[in-house]
């Protein structure tokens, strides 16, 4: 890809990337460039030399940045080889943000895991997996008000984004959405209008460490208690 072929699409750098202190500024900028290039086909096929020329750095530096972004779970690289096992191209996929991609990976299937046995709230007619399935497919069975909250909090993942995410992270997102929906159905919308993503994730990990056997109920109480402080 030459500089003349630079994309006209917007770059996207979500809060998860912008505020990640593990990332260098150059890595965040590179990430944004990858999102712009991936917008057309669902993946970025530009090689390291393209980015090196674009930012006036060495290809080795670009390679380190890409490896670090992949290590932290923000991108996934796929190496394409010919019948002689020679590398012919490399594709980079965005995998960890609310960002629509048109890649052709197999459609995500509903998880076979059962609902958490500690959750016995009858106010939700869906179990964890069914609710998550409806959310990622933007189903009209879910209230528009709740979908708007999920979008604001950047939990509106699509099936395409989940292909390379680790299962423990997918489980975390499922649990958080389930508890938020529980709060929504129990008329705690005013709380959901004020919470932020970072705090929700931090409270989740605290609940996971403090009470893993009763995770969802403990997490729900943590959100409620935190909103009154």
What does this structure look like?
- By secondary structure, this protein is mainly alpha-helical.
- It has 2 domains: 3-94, Arc Repressor Mutant, subunit A; 128-227, no CATH class.
- Helix content is 48%, strand content 7%.
- The protein contains 10 helices and 2 strands.
- The chain has helices spanning 15-18, 25-41, 48-55, 59-71, 128-136, 144-152, 167-185, 189-192, 197-210, 215-227, and strands spanning 75-81, 87-94.
- Strands 1-2 form a two-stranded antiparallel sheet.
- It is elongated.
Write the layout of secondary structure elements.
Layout: H1 15-18, H2 25-41, H3 48-55, H4 59-71, E1 75-81, E2 87-94, H5 128-136, H6 144-152, H7 167-185, H8 189-192, H9 197-210, H10 215-227
Antiparallel strand pairs: 1-2
The helicity comes to 40-55%
Order of helices and strands: HHHHEEHHHHHH
What's the helix count?
A: 10
From the alpha carbons, calculate the radius of gyration and give it in angstroms. Answer: 20 Å
Uncertain runs are: 97-123
From the spread of the alpha carbons, the general shape counts as: elongated
Return the structural class. mainly alpha
Terminal Cα span = 53 Å
**The number of domains:** 2
Mean pLDDT: 79
Number of strands: 2
Provide the β-strand percentage band. Answer: 5-15%
């Amino acid at each position: 890809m030459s500089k003349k072929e630079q994309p006209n699409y917007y770059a996207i750098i979500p809060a998860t990337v912008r505020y990640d202190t593990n990332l260098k500024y150059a890595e965040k900028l590179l990430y944004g460039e990858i999102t712009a290039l991936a917008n057309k086909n669902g993946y970025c096929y530009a090689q390291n030399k393209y980015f090196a020329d674009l930012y006036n750095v060495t290809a080795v530096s670009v390679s380190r940045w890409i490896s670090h972004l992949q290590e932290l779970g923000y991108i996934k690289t796929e190496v394409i080889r010919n019948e002689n096992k020679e590398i012919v191209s490399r594709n980079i996929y965005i995998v960890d943000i609310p960002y629509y991609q048109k890649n052709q990976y197999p459609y995500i299937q509903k998880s076979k895991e059962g609902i958490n046995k500690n959750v016995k709230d009858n106010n939700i007619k869906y179990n964890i997996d069914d609710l998550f399935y409806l959310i990622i497919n933007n189903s009209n069975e879910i209230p528009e008000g709740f979908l708007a909250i999920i979008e604001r909090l950047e939990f509106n993942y699509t099936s395409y984004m989940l292909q390379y995410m680790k299962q423990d992270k997918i489980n975390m997102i499922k649990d958080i959405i389930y508890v938020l929906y529980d709060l929504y159905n129990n008329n705690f919308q005013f709380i959901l209008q004020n919470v932020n993503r970072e705090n929700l994730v931090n409270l989740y990990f605290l609940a996971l460490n403090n009470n893993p056997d009763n995770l969802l109920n403990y997490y729900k109480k943590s959100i409620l208690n935190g909103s009154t402080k």
